[in-house]
Design brief:
Elements lengths: L25 H9 L6 H11 L11 H13 L9 E7 L15 H12 L3 H9 L2 E6 L17 H13 L7 E7 L3 H13 L3 H4 L8 H17 L7 H8 L2 H15 L4 E3 L2 H13 L7 E3 L8 H8 L15 H5 L1 H13 L3 H4 L6
Parallel strand pairs: 1-2, 1-3, 3-4, 4-5
Length: 357
């Protein structure tokens, strides 16, 4: 009998096989959202010790000092770095657009994705200035959600798949993550999600989005109220609330923020949609958003209210309402300035400056 020869290896898959499922149920996702690591206390202590020796009055650089400690604590580095900054923009479409909540047609989402990929959007310019790599992820092939006024925006399977898309988009090696989105109709989903998580009528949370007039904002608020009534029974669980009232790109941002926490990566949050998308983490864990910093307060009506509920203090207030991670990316130079001061300033001893008595 001839000797057995090993079978040839199977040919490589094309396209590559998808990564194994992380979250097989909402319960497993909820467990992941509640099992979160904290910052590195030793790194933060080392940063505080050096900060106290620098040639300036204690605390005189204000939030710049806090930003350095925040970065170092989550990176786990006594000397933080910003060499690998990633800007992730997730795109998705929304069935609620059929209710007339946006003056823009849904095909604009795909057109803007192409614009991002061609380098022609605002975020392309801002990412270049900030020294950030830009990655655009069309979630679920830009298939629209269900109309959230009549049905859950996402099935459980679609919600978990979108969360996993966001989770896997975050690399292991990353010093800072900037989050953003693109999706016609997504300020309606964000406002509905905020209302579902924190209460209140649609008029408290609805804004102008991409250019609604006063009548349009009132109609949008009515659409939100209808969605809240339709899904009243699902609003006791934050993840069910996100599934029924959110969207593909919102779920992906939730997944990316969760991945960043598990991988010890600090996150800059963008505007209203981004903040609403990650709010379930704060409902599921008292320090669920501790690794994030709100980059700016947008011009959307509900954003300041949502930030207050979440205990988030924005770095900037520029009247932005673009999305695309524009505000998050604009804040990167502030962090670079904070690090430059912390690492580049002389100590009192080095500069031969007499310390305060």
């Amino acid at each position: 009998m001839p000797p057995l020869t090993p079978a040839p290896p199977p040919p490589p898959r094309y396209p590559p096989a998808p990564p194994p499922a992380l979250f097989t149920s909402l319960a497993s996702l909820q467990a992941a959202c509640q099992n979160l690591p904290g910052p590195n206390a030793a790194a933060q202590q080392a940063i505080a010790v050096r900060e106290a020796t620098l040639t300036k009055p204690a605390g005189s650089l204000g939030q710049l000092e806090q930003l350095t400690a925040w970065l170092g604590g989550w990176q786990g580095r006594a000397t933080p770095v910003l060499e690998q900054v990633l800007c992730l923009v997730f795109a998705g479409n929304h069935g609620v657009v059929a209710q007339g909540v946006s003056p823009w047609p849904p095909e604009v989402t795909a057109q803007m994705v192409h614009n991002f990929q061609s380098g022609g959007a605002a975020i392309n310019q801002l990412a270049r200035i900030a020294g950030a790599n830009l990655q655009v992820v069309p979630v679920a092939g830009l298939r629209p959600t269900a109309d959230l006024t009549t049905a859950p925006a996402l099935s459980a399977a679609d919600f978990l798949a979108a969360v996993q898309t966001g989770y896997h988009a975050v690399p292991e090696q990353c010093d800072l993550l900037c989050l953003g989105e693109m999706g016609i109709g997504n300020t309606t989903a964000a406002a509905a999600l905020a209302a579902g998580l924190f209460g209140g009528a649609g008029t408290l949370w609805a804004g102008r989005g991409t250019g609604l007039d006063d009548a349009g904002v009132l109609h949008k608020a009515h659409v939100i109220d209808t969605a809240l009534h339709t899904h009243a029974g699902a609003l006791t669980n934050p993840l069910e609330t996100a599934r029924t009232l959110g969207g593909f790109e919102l779920a992906a941002m939730l997944g990316a923020t969760l991945a960043a926490r598990h991988k010890h990566i600090p996150v800059l949050l963008d505007g209203y949609v981004c903040t609403a998308a990650v709010a379930p983490l704060a409902k599921l864990h008292p320090h669920g958003l501790a690794h994030t910093w709100l980059a700016h307060c947008s011009a959307e009506t509900g954003h300041a209210r949502l930030a207050k509920y979440l205990g988030l203090s924005p770095l900037l207030s520029l009247g932005l309402r673009l999305g695309e991670a524009s505000g998050a990316t604009l804040a990167v130079p502030l962090l670079r300035a904070a690090l430059a001061c912390h690492t580049g300033m002389a100590t009192f001893a080095q500069a031969a400056v007499t310390e305060r008595v």
